[in-house]
Amino acid sequence: MPFGHGKVILFGEHGVVHGRPALALAVERGAEVTAAPSTNGVTTLHIEPWNVDVDAGAGPNEGREPLQRALQTARALYDDDIELALTAHVRLPSGAGMGSSAALGVAVLRAMDEARGTLHSNDEIYERSLSWERVFHGNPSGVDNAMAAHGGMAVFKKGEPLKRIVARRRVRVVAGYSGVGSSTKDMVASVGRAYTKDPERVGKIFDGMAAIVSNGRLALEQGDMKSLGQLMTLNQRLLAALMLSTDAIEEMIEHALKAGALGAKVTGAGGGGCMIALVDSDAQKEAVKAALSALGRTVYDVESGPS
Ligand code: PMV
User: Fold this and answer.
1) Strands 44-48 and 274-279
2) Cα–Cα dist 225/222, whole Å
3) Ligand 1 in reach of 16 Cβ (< 6 A)
4) How many A from CA of 87 to the centre of ligand 1?
5) Atom of ligand 1 nearest to the CA of 139
């Protein structure tokens, strides 16, 4: 079934918007989209579990304008008269730093391809899905789309080919949703303003994150989970210095670390959304999940595939 992966960013969010690398892990859960012929002459999209309906027609879809624009953008990539009724199942929280909009965009484009008997490569799907993502995120780095299209684990840097990572050990994280969504567009804009105001300080923070990405990649290749965890916690300090953490996220991080996580941080845009905690055994995973659940948070298991 046409699918787009969700993702978590292990290191480097925000710096990646400003030309630094980020290291991300695709999530096995994501968005699935099926297509049937449209019955009303216009391409439509129904999204579960949000119970949202939009169409790519010219008439207004009140309250759903960004999604309608995104669907229109996707439809406009095809120069034909094939109109589809698309149904999506999104198995990710929205506005939570897990890449739900990119996963949906990639799955929609794959479903549109499949219904036409066309097949674009992962790289082409990545490129084609960027205009969808721009509707929601303004100035996306592209990391979410790259992971949604390719899956796996990789270092992403704008304008460079994706560098796949072969990790020595399986990476296991627990993602915890703070219960508060955040706008990636707003968070990216606020970091952008801070960068313009104080390029030296913020540039140094981005450079620090870039160094963490390099070291994180080495730790993954060497299977050094302890260092990987420490690097995550270090990355969190830099994100907090950019005002991207929240009380709820800090509380979750503290409880996850007390429960035995090897490291923990915000993932994605911050200002709400999700945190992630690195675990390295079933016992650690269950303890961290229990600690976050006790705070009333929704938790998700994220694991890299075998590599
Ligand atoms: O959309 P989110 O919350 O998963 O965040 C994506 C990561 C950012 O670096 C904050 C934005 C981007 O475009 O890379």
Assistant:
1) unpaired
2) 9
3) yes
4) 25
5) 13
Tens-place pLDDT, residues 217-262: 999 999 999 999 999 999 999 999 999 999 999 999 999 999 999 9
User: Is the pTM value of this prediction over 0.70?
Assistant: yes
Which of 8, 129, 132, 141 maximizes ligand 1 atoms within 8 Å of its Cβ, making it the mutation to test the pocket?
Answer: 141
Q: Is residue 269 lining ligand 1, measured as CB closer than 6 Å?
A: yes
Q: Is the CB of 17 under 6 A from ligand 1?
A: yes
Expressed in angstroms and rounded, the spacing between residue 37 Cα and the centre of ligand 1 is 34
Q: Please work out whether the CB of residue 176 comes within 6 Å of at least one atom of ligand 1.
A: no
pLDDT of residue 97: 83
Q: How far apart are CA 243 and CA 226, in angstroms?
A: 26
- State the pLDDT at residue 274: 92
Q: Which atom of ligand 1 is nearest to the CA of 99?
A: 4
* 41: pLDDT strictly greater than 50: yes
Looking at residue 306, what is its pLDDT?
53
Residue 268 pLDDT greater than 90, yes or no:
yes
Write out pLDDT tens, residues 19-36: 999 999 998 889 999 999
What is residue 93's predicted lDDT score, i.e. its pLDDT?
A: 82
